[in-house]
Amino acid sequence: MEGFPMRKWSIKIFLLDEHGDETAANIFSSAEYLLHESFGDRARQVKNDPPFRISEEGWGEFEMRINLHTMDGGREHSFVHDLNFAQARYDIKHVVAFKKPTTSQITALRLSGPIPGEEIARKKTAGDETPMGSGGGVAPPAKKRKSGFGGKDKLESLERLAEEIKLIKDKDMYELIEIINDNKGDESQITNDLENGEFTVDLCTLPDKAIQLLQQYVEETLSR
Questions:
Q1: Has residue 166 got a pLDDT over 60?
Q2: Where would you say this protein principally sits, based on its record (predicted)?
Q3: How far is residue 116 CA from its own chain's centroid?
Q4: What is the mean pLDDT of residues 58-70?
Q5: Which CATH superfamily is domain 7-110 in?
Q6: Calpha distance 106→104 (Å, rounded)
Q7: Strand, coil or helix: what is 120?
Q8: Burial class of 95 by CB neighbour count within 10 A (0 to 12, 13 to 18, 19+)
Q9: Where are the domains of the chain?
Q10: Which residues contact 124 (CB under 8 A, 6 or more apart)?
Q11: Is 112:16 a contact under the CB 8 Å cutoff?
């Protein structure tokens, strides 16, 4: 437009790892950019390879919608990006959550850092929480449940289960957490802090069915 300088601009999309460094956004299969209608035939552009770079030239600032398509046909993640020329370069961060990611999606996400529920640390005291994820854990029982089997046998059984969970490999942790979430009860004490990568459960508050499924899964997984 007359009186306004033409500006070249470009956008690239990355994931940020646990240290805040850029890493390839391989979790996405494509990025769809919906530009201002003044771009005509170029108002909709799809990029299929990370970092999904788009380059254009124009005079005006505007808001565009960016649709990120997840690999394996996962759901679309959309957000609005404010294109402006106040700075020569600027970064904008968006938080994207993945609900029940597939195995390949988990593998892709793992490249950008720890996944909640995967990395297991160890603590010596049975009464302490055993970390599950980057900061959560399984709390061995310190009291008897009101229903189901109880007493010393149950306490020893759950303490043994807590110790065995520490041996589960990273790639199997997501399914274990899914078993807990799918079979928890109204009184189950579970903390799932996705932002900080923490998942904590008090085993003694889980229903007997959940404990039985966990024991079965852990036994089968460790015997592979």
A1: yes
A2: nucleus
A3: 6
A4: 92
A5: YEATS domain (2.60.40.1970)
A6: 5
A7: strand
A8: exposed
A9: 7-110, 130-222
A10: none
A11: yes
